[in-house]
Every structure is written in structure tokens, then in C-alpha cells.
Design goal:
By secondary structure, this protein is of the alpha/beta class. Helices cover 30% and strands 23% of the residues. The protein has a 10-stranded mixed beta sheet with strand order 5-4-7-6-8-9-10-11-1-12, with helices on both faces. Strands 2-3 form a two-stranded antiparallel ribbon. α5 packs across α6.
């Protein structure tokens, strides 16, 4: 059963069951030219019909796991250790503890390991829980034009899934103790990683999953990518200039403050980035209220 909820800033957590919400986003067509933000929230012009950068895409498809996996634990909270697929020593000689839950963070477009999302969520987790935090740096593809990045996200996601399968084979770290978190394009990336692992990861969190070119894309994050898949919508794409998908994609979808605009924000970029800031707050504090919703009208008008 799918869950659709409306989030408000509050003092407790409340959730309720509801049916899937269908929105006008299901048939939304983006204009030819849009603006989309980088990891610092700076807007860039995007031509949705620009040519694919084939050398980058071919490299990603040939070597989908050729990204950086940076481990942080309470023993090394700010100085990362590099983990490598097919290099058992890199894992065995690290602080990775298979007896602890593992959290993976994937940034969005024009971003890298230094982007704010990574230290904010990393520090929230390590401050509250004893976990392994792995930051995925997929800057090679993320630095390409938007069209190329969209095309390559499924391959990078499969690579992440293959890396986690290797991690499991070396350490025994169970899939049902893994939580994959992705922002914007990274939300679809972690969805594909969960799909590579046949939906066995415990939890997939899609933070305002990117909307342009993803509305009807079969490779977008969906409810079967993990045991539990949640999406946090803060800049719903059914509004003009919206950067995120404005309809349900997970087994639970949260529309924060209606999912379109956020308090203190005057731009879509600000709304979009609020998703990971809100999520980090839910890790550190229990102060979110979720009310059940049964329709798009209820989400946007209540």
C-alpha cells in the first residue's frame, strides 16, 4: 500500500495510510529551456535538447562503478577513507563495521563530495547514531551537461549497487541494514542502485527527485527499489519552474508544506535544497508532523 503525507514543521511525528495521489505532473511537459541548480544552489541554463556528450556516457556505461566511495564513521567523522570495488583490502583495512547500519549519500547535478548535502547529512547521522556513512562522489558524470547526466544516472546507480554487493560479499554487511539517500538526480541514482540489488536494501530516500526528463522515465526512482522507499517533495514540478517531481514515486511520499514552496524561500533552488535540510533535521530531531492525504487538492490546498 502506498502512503501519501503532508509535512509541516512541528514538534512530533505523525504518519497515516492513504492511496496514491495522481497529479497534473503525470502529463507535465517541460519547456525546451529551463534553469536547474548546481550543488551550491546556483542556477544554470539547461537546453533539454542539447547533444549528449557521448565520450562521457560511453565511459560511464563501460565502467559504471568507477566512482569514489568515501567512508566516514565515528572513528573518522571528518576525514574519509576511500573504499574501492574489487579491492578487498581497501575495505578490510578501513573502519567499516558490518555490524552497524550503512548509510549512503548521493549528491545531485554539478556537485561532488564537497557539496553541502554530504557533510550536513553525514554529521546529522554520526551525531545521532553509530553508523557507517558512505559518500558517493560521481562528479565525472555529474559535471556533464544535464542531458548526459540524465542518460548516465542508471549506469552509475547500477555501479553503486554492484559496489554494495561487493561490500556485502567481503564483510557480510546485510542489505536490510543499508539506507540509500539521494538528492535530485541522485534520488534516481539510488533508486537504480536499489533496483540492481533487487529491492533488498532496507530503505531508499529520494530527496526532491529531479523532475525534468524523469516524469515518465522508466529509470526513475520507484516504490519497488527497496523494502521501503520514501520521497520528500519540496519543489513540486507541477508548478512553473518546479525542479522536482510533483507526484508519488515511493511507497511513502511526503509533500512538505504542500510540496511546492517552502518557508523562507523565494526561489525554486531554495525550495529544492530544503529537501535535504529537512531530512537532516529528521535525523537529528523528532519535529515533523505528517498528515494523511487522499488527493492532490488536499496536498496543495489544506
Amino acid at each position: 500500500m502506498k502512503i501519501t503525507l503532508l509535512w509541516f514543521l512541528g514538534v512530533t511525528v505523525y504518519t497515516a495510510l492513504a492511496g496514491p495521489v495522481k497529479s497534473s505532473m503525470d502529463n507535465y511537459i517541460y519547456p525546451w529551456f529551463i534553469k536547474f541548480p548546481d550543488g551550491e544552489g546556483i542556477m544554470h541554463n539547461v537546453d533539454l535538447e542539447s547533444p549528449i556528450q557521448l565520450p562521457i556516457l560511453e565511459e560511464v556505461n563501460r565502467h559504471p562503478a568507477n566512482n569514489e566511495y568515501l567512508l566516514y564513521t565515528r572513528r573518522n567523522p571528518t576525514s574519509s577513507q576511500s573504499l574501492e570495488i574489487n579491492n578487498a583490502a581497501s575495505i578490510e583495512n578501513s573502519y567499516f563495521n558490518p555490524d552497524l547500519p550503512t548509510v549512503v549519500i548521493a549528491h545531485g547535478w554539478l556537485s561532488d563530495q564537497e557539496s553541502d548535502i554530504n557533510p550536513v547529512i553525514r554529521d546529522a547521522y554520526l551525531g545521532k547514531h553509530d553508523v557507517n556513512v558512505i559518500v558517493l562522489d560521481w562528479r565525472r558524470l555529474a559535471s556533464a551537461n544535464y542531458m548526459t547526466a540524465v542518460q548516465g544516472v542508471p549506469a552509475v546507480g547500477r555501479g553503486l549497487g554492484q559496489f554494495l554487493a561487493f561490500l556485502n560479499s567481503i564483510t557480510g554487511a546485510p542489505f536490510d541494514q543499508m539506507h540509500l539517500i539521494g538528492f535530485s538526480l541522485g534520488a534516481h541514482l539510488v533508486g537504480n542502485a536499489g533496483r540492481e540489488l533487487r529491492g533488498r536494501v532496507a530503505r531508499v530516500t529520494a530527496l526532491d527527485p529531479a523532475g525534468p526528463l524523469w516524469d515518465v522515465n522508466p529509470d526513475r526512482v520507484n516504490f519497488s527499489d527497496g523494502i521501503y522507499v520514501e520521497a520528500i517533495h519540496t519543489d513540486g514540478g507541477y508548478t512553473v519552474g518546479g525542479l522536482g517531481i510533483g507526484s508519488d514515486v515511493g511507497s511513502a511520499d511526503f509533500y512538505v508544506n504542500g510540496g511546492v514552496s517552502q518557508p523562507g524561500c523565494l526561489t525554486n533552488s531554495c525550495n529544492h535544497n530544503k529537501s535535504w535540510r529537512y531530512f537532516a533535521a529528521t535525523v537529528s530531531y523528532d519535529h515533523i508532523i505528517g498528515n494523511q492525504c487522499f488527493s492532490q487538492w488536499q496536498i496543495t490546498c489544506d
